[in-house]
């Protein structure tokens, strides 16, 4: 069943990012609600390439842990858009800002779903490259979590452009991604996603970016030093040993020492809370 763009009514703005603007829209005939991600500036080759990358990935993914795309639009005027499944709970980032932090069982429940998504992606040879709370979407019933935003190609290589919201973008990047020499050779981008997952999961529990003291507004040099040269982060007292061990498996500086997504899915931190009802 087709959903021509003309039949969509824009209701509100759900989010804005580097890539474009995401609207909550209603399909007039069926009254169904969707999210419409409109990408601006596709005259710029690199932005257009990001759009194509995201479109191609969303077309071939089919998993309950990856946000679904129903339609893509490419108008002669140059505007391009993706019609996505609407996630009514917003992002984990807004969730954190409104609720502060998540309990350990909640973090475990969220982490399991993100890992299911990563196992799916990695087994299909897709790297996400931008795992962070604002790219993880929530469906309120059952606290379902899905991976979104496959538009990244913007931050994969040096030199860095300090003009854009660079600090926010590289906060979740693994140490090897700051190293220009590791870009070609044996750099395994899949394990970069695992690092980003570790930082994200820790942030969900602590309520702030875990590699720096709270309420800092770091320059990217500070941030890079914390990521590349800082001590491995530890959880505050009260967290379980399984949780700390899980993070240790994600936050190894040396990528080859990190566990893969499918190994992590069997970790005791996830098994321990399996079946526990959340909310
Ligand atoms: P960008 O590349 O601009 O970061 P995203 O795909 O991450 O693009 O979307 C930007 C924001 O729009 C998200 O952080 C989120 O707040 C909102 N958003 C995106 N997709 C959806 C969706 N399917 N349902 C609800 N909100 C969404
Ligand atoms: Mg995003």
UniProtKB/TrEMBL annotation:
Keyword annotations from UniProtKB, A to Z: ATP-binding, Kinase, Nucleotide-binding, Phosphoprotein, Serine/threonine-protein kinase, Transferase
EC number(s) recorded for this UniProt protein: 2.7.12.2
Keyword Repeat among UniProt keywords: no
PROSITE patterns registered for this protein in UniProt: PROTEIN_KINASE_ATP, PROTEIN_KINASE_DOM, PROTEIN_KINASE_ST
GO terms in the biological process aspect are: response to other organism; response to stress
Q: Which CDD domains is this protein grouped with?
A: PKc_MAPKK_plant_like (cd06623)
Which residues does the UniProt record annotate as the domain Protein kinase? 8-270
Query: Catalytic activity annotated for this protein?
Result: L-tyrosyl-[protein] + ATP = O-phospho-L-tyrosyl-[protein] + ADP + H(+); L-seryl-[protein] + ATP = O-phospho-L-seryl-[protein] + ADP + H(+); L-threonyl-[protein] + ATP = O-phospho-L-threonyl-[protein] + ADP + H(+)
For ATP, which residues are the binding ones? Answer: 37
Q: Where are the transmembrane segments?
A: none
Which EC main class describes this enzyme? transferase
- GO molecular function per UniProt: ATP binding; MAP kinase kinase activity; protein serine/threonine kinase activity
InterPro entries per record: Kinase-like_dom_sf (IPR011009), Prot_kinase_dom (IPR000719), Protein_kinase_ATP_BS (IPR017441), Ser-Thr/Tyr_kinase_cat_dom (IPR001245), Ser/Thr_kinase_AS (IPR008271)
Tree of life domain: Eukaryota
The record's family statement is:
Belongs to the protein kinase superfamily. STE Ser/Thr protein kinase family. MAP kinase kinase subfamily.
Q: Per its record, how is this protein called by name?
A: mitogen-activated protein kinase kinase
Organism of derivation? Corchorus olitorius
């Amino acid at each position: 069943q087709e959903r021509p763009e003309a039949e969509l009514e824009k209701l509100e703005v759900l989010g804005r990012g580097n890539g474009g603007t995401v609207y909550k829209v209603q399909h007039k005939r069926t009254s169904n609600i969707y999210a419409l991600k409109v990408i601006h500036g596709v005259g710029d080759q690199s932005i257009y390439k990001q759009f194509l990358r995201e479109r191609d990935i969303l077309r071939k993914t089919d998993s309950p842990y990856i946000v679904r795309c129903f339609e893509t639009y490419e108008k002669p005027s140059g505007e391009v858009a993706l019609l996505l499944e609407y996630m009514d709970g917003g992002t984990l980032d807004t969730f954190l800002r409104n609720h502060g932090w998540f309990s350990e069982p909640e973090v475990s429940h969220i982490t399991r779903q993100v890992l299911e998504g990563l196992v799916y992606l990695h087994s299909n040879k897709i790297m996400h490259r931008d795992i962070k709370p604002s790219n993880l979407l929530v469906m309120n019933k059952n606290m379902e979590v899905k991976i979104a935003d496959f538009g990244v190609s913007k931050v994969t290589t040096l030199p860095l452009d300090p003009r854009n919201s660079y600090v926010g973008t590289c906060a979740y990047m693994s140490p090897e991604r700051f190293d220009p020499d590791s870009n070609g050779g044996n750099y395994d981008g899949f394990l970069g996603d695992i690092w980003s997952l570790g930082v994200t999961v820790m942030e969900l529990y602590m309520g702030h970016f875990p590699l720096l003291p709270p309420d800092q507004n770091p320059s990217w040099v500070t941030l890079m030093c914390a990521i590349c040269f800082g001590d491995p982060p530890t959880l505050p007292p009260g967290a379980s040993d399984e949780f700390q061990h899980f993070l240790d498996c994600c936050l190894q500086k040396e990528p080859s020492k990190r566990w893969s997504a499918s190994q992590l899915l069997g970790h005791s931190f996830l098994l321990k809370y399996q079946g526990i009802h959340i909310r």
